[in-house]
Structures are given as structure tokens and as C-alpha cells.
Write a structure and sequence with these properties.
5 strands; Arc Repressor Mutant, subunit A; about 290 residues; 2 domains
């Protein structure tokens, strides 16, 4: 997660934060694009509440069905209506041309939007007024959109718009990483970090004692890393290198179930509850030891 998302997350309430971390954790650990998208939509209502949430295929052929995922008032009938107007939809064209998210206020004021054919035919029948439509980009092309809709009395705040934009950007990056089998954290799985984790006991070179200048808090952090078994350290290094559970299992020639059990113990020893937090904690400790 980049600093922009980090700063927005600090403003979230605990339920929103938990849902946000579940989304990020899924993007990092899951190896199925479909599963990542389903989990994203499942958790999104807890982060950006609304009357409807959906992931819509941007290039669906209506004759051959689709792979849309929707919740709330964004139903199959409303999606068909939306697509029937898409060719003349100025908001859709703006999003496609700019590759940026759009809202009903991107082009029109509320009074103008209230008289627009798209609102009257697509949204009004389902009692929704405000919307955010965010493009999910793969190889620079819009492959699907994340759509969130609300009623007239609950417009989206600027912070909600920014948060959704950041999350969808991270979703795009995660899906590309799965499809192209790239590391999700290409800049942190460095040899120095791996060496610190696997060979961390070398830091205790004062008769097994830390120098007096080390604070009690830092001693606790370093001790947590030392509690990991050799196998757990290997798993953690592979997590830092961006590998998902299935890839770790193949690399270490163990089952996915065993990988998950190792991760549970790693989380417990590091005092964290997710993959993201484990990565952050490990990097924090290793930077301190450098």
C-alpha cells in the first residue's frame, strides 16, 4: 500500500479498517482473479456504504452472458439497462478516454443529472441517484469497472471518492500481478531483508544480549522475529517476495494447508492478524537491525 492509501486508512473506523485490510490481504494472497474481485465487492459495502455495489465487465457480449458481480440495488435488470445506454453515455466515454473514475457530478450538476436520460431510465427506477464508476485497468485497458451507487440524500464525500479510487488502483495492480505472475511487493523482498530474517540471530553478538541503548519496545520486536522457526522464517521471506500461498507451497514442497498453518503461527508470534501487517512488521524490524 502506498502512502496515499495509508493516510486515508488512518481516518477509517475500525469496521472499515478491518474490511480494508481483508481486501488488501486477499489481493496479496489469492491467486484467482475471480476470487479477488468477489472478495473486493463483498467487503466494499463495509468501507464505502451504499445502496448498490458491483464489478461490471467492460467488454461483455450480452448475447453470451457475463461475469458481473453485484449487490443491493444494482441488479441484473439495472445492469442491462445501463449497458443499453452505454454507447451514448457521456460519463462512460469520459472514463474510457481519461482512464479515471467518474461520478454523476463529473459533468453535470444535480439538477441537470436529474433530467438526464441515463438517470431517468437507468437509475431512477431503482431509487439510486449518485454513483462512482472506477475503471479497473489491465495493461492500460479498462477491463471492468467498480460501480457504487447511492440515493439522492447521500452523496459521496471527497474522502470516500479518494479511498475508492486508491482501492481500485490497488485492485488493478493486484490483478495484473496475478495474471502476469509478478511480485506484489517487488521492492521489499530484497536479499538484505531476507538475510536479516533468516540469519537474525547474528544480531545478538554481545554475549546474547542487546546493547543497552536498545529500547524495551525494540527488544520485544526483535525477540518476536527470533521466535520464528527456520521454516516459518522461510515462509515469511517468500511472503516478502510477493509469493502467494499456492506458490509458497510449490516452492517449499509442502501443502497449502501447511502454509496457512505456518502463517497463523507467524502472525501470532509477530502480534499481527494479516499478511499485510506481517510484511510491515518484518520490514520495520529489519530496517531497525540494519
Amino acid at each position: 500500500m502506498n502512502s496515499g492509501l495509508d493516510s486515508l486508512i488512518k481516518t477509517l473506523k475500525p469496521p472499515q479498517l478491518r474490511a480494508c485490510m481483508k481486501i488488501v490481504d486477499c489481493i496479496i494472497s489469492d491467486s484467482s482473479p475471480g476470487s479477488i474481485i468477489r472478495n473486493f465487492i463483498a467487503e466494499l459495502p463495509s468501507i464505502v456504504p451504499a445502496e448498490g455495489h458491483a464489478a461490471l465487465d467492460a467488454h461483455v457480449d450480452l448475447r453470451n452472458g457475463n461475469t458481473d458481480i453485484s449487490m443491493g440495488r444494482i441488479c441484473e435488470e439495472s445492469i442491462c439497462q445501463f449497458r443499453s445506454f452505454r454507447s451514448i453515455d457521456p460519463f462512460w466515454r469520459l472514463m474510457i478516454n481519461t482512464l479515471q473514475p467518474v461520478t454523476n457530478r463529473s459533468l453535470l450538476c444535480d439538477d441537470e443529472w436529474e433530467m438526464h436520460p441515463n438517470y431517468l431510465n437507468v437509475m431512477k427506477p431503482y431509487k439510486i441517484f449518485h454513483f462512482i464508476q472506477s475503471p479497473v485497468l489491465l495493461n492500460g485497458t479498462v477491463k471492468l469497472t467498480i460501480n457504487v451507487s447511492r440515493d439522492y440524500n447521500h452523496p459521496f464525500s471527497s474522502s470516500e471518492f479518494r479511498l475508492l479510487t486508491k482501492l481500485v488502483h490497488y485492485l488493478s495492480y493486484g490483478l495484473e500481478s496475478v495474471i502476469h505472475q509478478r511480485q506484489i511487493f517487488p521492492d521489499i523482498g530484497s536479499p538484505s531483508v531476507a538475510k536479516t530474517i533468516v540469519g537474525g540471530e547474528q544480531r545478538f553478538d554481545h554475549g546474547g544480549q542487546l546493547p543497552e541503548k536498545e529500547s524495551e519496545e525494540n527488544m520485544v520486536k526483535i525477540a518476536a522475529l527470533e521466535l520464528l522457526t527456520e521454516r516459518e522464517k522461510q515462509v515469511l521471506v517468500l511472503v516478502l517476495n510477493g509469493l502467494r500461498d499456492r506458490e509458497i507451497a510449490l516452492k517449499l514442497r509442502i501443502s497449502i494447508y501447511t502454509v496457512k498453518e505456518h502463517l497463523k503461527r507467524i502472525y501470532n508470534k509477530l502480534g499481527v492478524s494479516s499478511r499485510v501487517q506481517a510484511v510491515t512488521k518484518a520490514i520495520e524490524i529489519c530496517k531497525y537491525l540494519d
